[in-house]
Amino acid sequence: xxxxxxxxxRRAVQRVGSLFRKDPLDHELDEEIAAHxxxxxxxxxxxxxxxxxxxxQAVIRFGGVPQxxxxxxxxxxxxxxxVLLQDLRYTVRTxxxxxxxxVIAVLILALGIGANIAVFSVVNTILLRxxxxxxxxxLVWIAPADANGLSASTYSADAYDDLxxxxxxxxxxxxxxxxxxxxxxxxxxxxxxxPVTGIGVAGNFFHMLGMEPALGRSFAKDESIKGGxxxxxxxxxxxxxxxxxxxxxxxxxxxxxxxxxxxxxxxPDTFDFGAVFSPGxxxxxxxxxxxxxxxxxxxxxxxxxxxxPGVSVAQAEAEAAVLFPKFFxxxxxxxxxxxxxxxxxxxxxxxxxxxxxSLIVLWCAVGLILLIVCVNLSNLLLARAAARSKEFALRxxxxxxxxRLVRQLLTESMVLAGMGAALGLGxxxxxxxxxxxxxxIALPLxxxxxxxxxxxxxTLAISxxxxxxxxxxPGLKTSSSNLQEALKDSGQGMSEGRNHERMRSxxxxxxxxxxxxxxxxxxxxxxxxxxxxxxxxxxQPSTAAAIKVDYNDGGSVEKRSAILEEILRRVRAIPGVxxxxxxxxxxxxxxxxxxxxxxxxxxxxxxxxxxxxxxIVSPGYVNAMGMRLRGRDFGWQDSMKGENTVxxxxxxxxxxxxxxxxxxxxxxxGKSEVRVIGVVADVHETNVEGKAGxxxxxxxxxxxxxxxxxxxxxxxxxxxxQLAGSVLRxxxxxxxxxxxxxxxxxxxxxxxxVSPRRFFVLLVTIFAGLGLVLASLGIYGVISYSVxxxxxxxxxxxxxxxxxxxxxxxVISTTLRMALVGIAVGAVAxxxxxxxxxxxxxxxxxxxPMTFVVMILLLGGVAALAGYVPARRASRINPMVALxxx
Amino acid sequence: MxxxxxxxxxxxxxxxxxxTLTAMGEMHGxxxxxxxxxxxxxxxxxxxxTIYASLVRLQQRGWIEAEWGTSENNRKAKFYSIxxxxxxxxxxxxxxxxxxxxVMGRVLAMGDEGGER
Lengths: 886, 117
Prior knowledge:
The complex is a heterodimer of chains A (886) and B (117). With 886 residues, chain A is an alpha+beta fold. Chain A folds into 4 domains: 2-77, no CATH class; 144-342, no CATH class; 355-534 and 752-884, no CATH class; 551-738, no CATH class. In chain A, 53% of the residues lie in helices and 13% in strands. Chain A is built from 26 helices and 24 strands. Chain A is elongated, with a radius of gyration of 38 Å. Chain B is of the alpha+beta class and 117 residues long. Chain B has one domain (12-116): Arc Repressor Mutant, subunit A (Orthogonal Bundle). In chain B, 58% of the residues lie in helices and 14% in strands. The radius of gyration of chain B is 17 Å and the shape is globular. Chain B starts with 11 loop residues before the first helix and ends with a helix. Classes of the chains: A alpha+beta (886), B alpha+beta (117). Chains A and B meet through helix 1, helix 2 and helix 4 of A and helix 2, helix 3, strand 3 and helix 4 of B.
């Protein structure tokens, strides 16, 4: 038994092997059969038959040479594979003969499949794949349920300590300082001061995320307590960029902000802090956050927990509901407890949850494209099938079964899809490497998007699926056609044309409908995006730019005022500068919140006063940002010598003195009495699409308010880039240590804030455009084909007196009839689809009539155009020529 | 195809070829086919061409081997001979066929007796 199994195996190997020796084996068999027949003839001759009879008998006894050869070939080779190879050879030949068709088909497929692979890779990375951290499903983001602004979604160091001590849900809890800005450190000792972006993380941060340094070690316990050794971990890209990937850097000190700090390690290439926690941001270095340093700063820590095995998010949430109200904003103030809450959510949900709907919509849009591509190809194949009906009739007359013909046609589709997929993969690689380098798009994990195994599998699945989808219908259609009719049919006849044409029209109609859905969906998103761009931000982003200013005031408010005043005086003197001012935070970037202002003399219930966003600014900032102010701006006299002053936004003013003018009133901020000198229009501080919260602008010249960094905002008539050099030079003159930080257009900050929407809108619009082109190609193909087929008929009509104009109108109206049905179906389907994407729309109703009308007109116009080209051709038919032909 | 001749059961032709090669030694395809026809008294329906499918099958299993040589009347021909494994297989298969045919004989003979009971 074992023996025969071995023999079967041996045979299988030989069978496969024989595929590669087809020609020599065939040749041997030919010779063998020739010898066989020769011997048979010789024997028959010996028996006294004539030569002719001897030959005849030999062949009869042999029983058909081709059949014997075929049986031997089947026996020695792999039967299915043989047929497949045969089909493939045939396919290559037929496609080679019809090169234009093959090229168009492959290009269309490559577009459809390529777009699908690219979008799948993005969806896979952001939505489907787990986060690139250890056991990411146990990581949770700990923040209040609907926090507005950074201060409201972070916790104090005291709360963090208590959470660590009291929780039972987490294996460990870590956090990072959430208020770092870009270029917040400066590295010296390597030529010009280099701006560096660093983040303070809790000592257990990397260990807890399961991210061990690629070189060196993570932070030690004593390095995150006050007075501990100053150490730093380098991010991989920064290590390569700044230190040329020098492994010897570990253990050596570097100079950060003028102080020596020891490099203890380099993080692995796979760790990208920004990608997970702060999309679009690049972080260069990590320092251990000394909790005692930020104990008096209030809410500064973003918290991440690792659940114990077996503990669910719901359990952690239940525990948080009990624990968090007990935590202190600061233990120095015993009454500061009771204001915290938290709703832990899976970290993955925090990172990409908001994008789920957009990504799924994108995925559906690109799926629609593939569907349109399939319909288009089906159509092309049907047209081809009509031309090839004779060929298939002939093959079937020669004994090819229906299954065999369908198989042949499917092989053709698979070959087309395979080539399309190969080209599409290349296209997807291109798109993805482009996307990966779009650091300005605020999408998480975008930098790690790649075509991976899953994407390749997906490619395979959609290519096979697509080829079956577009190949099966024409396959069945062709193989079922009546043999006799087809052979008789002269190719331009009417016999099966009508049926064929009806099917092709149905395909085109569905194509138009699908394109209509895409167009209207894209139209709604585009309109939303335009509405977003039209939002009154409360400031003028164009022609202004910001640069981070480095200064050293030694902690003295007088010195700070003097330095900033001098900077502003010098900067304003630069030709081209219209206005300049300084703030610690810019809108749409880092923000911080304090307890909101109260009206003096009013009594508020606990929790009634909302928090307010705080901006500590210099005179001139309001003007430099292009904010709309009533009342007056700060002057340098609003210092410790003068009255304590504040500028509120409308939201705050409305809350404090509803129906009254706030200017001139006295507000309470903390324990300070402050006069409101002005009110500005609401500025979108956290996002473009949401509503503005309460804001207060406080003078940097007062001791009560400590600014956190300084951003110099410059408004100019020139393109901001032209000013970059002179502004930096001026800053350097005043402070040689000023790092060469970027001069950032304010518009860029706004663009960054709307970049996710821009990204989705751009892609969906491109897909809709693609859909439109494909649909018009489909229309063109069908109409053009029917004109060709009806050349004679049109010729007769023209001979009987139909004018070219009449012929043209006839063709165009056929086109429009088809398009109208498709558009009607598409419009109805769009109503449903629009409802599904309603939550992604901004200030646009799902049934926005304007969008529907414009898109329907666009689709109808393109359809008419696609019909016009063949219509023109029809009207130029020369009746004499048309009638003489055929 | 003719109705009166015996249709070959799956695998029987292989067995015939093995037996023929054992009995006659090295032979070419035509010789094997002729030999089977003669021994069967022309009772077997055999298109001589089908022998080549059987030959390649047996060869791939390693039960026979082939070599180009020259025939008695000076023709180039492929000569087949049985291998050691082929002989072993033949013993097994022959025993199987004999058992099967005796069982079939008994089963078919039972028809009359069964009728009487």
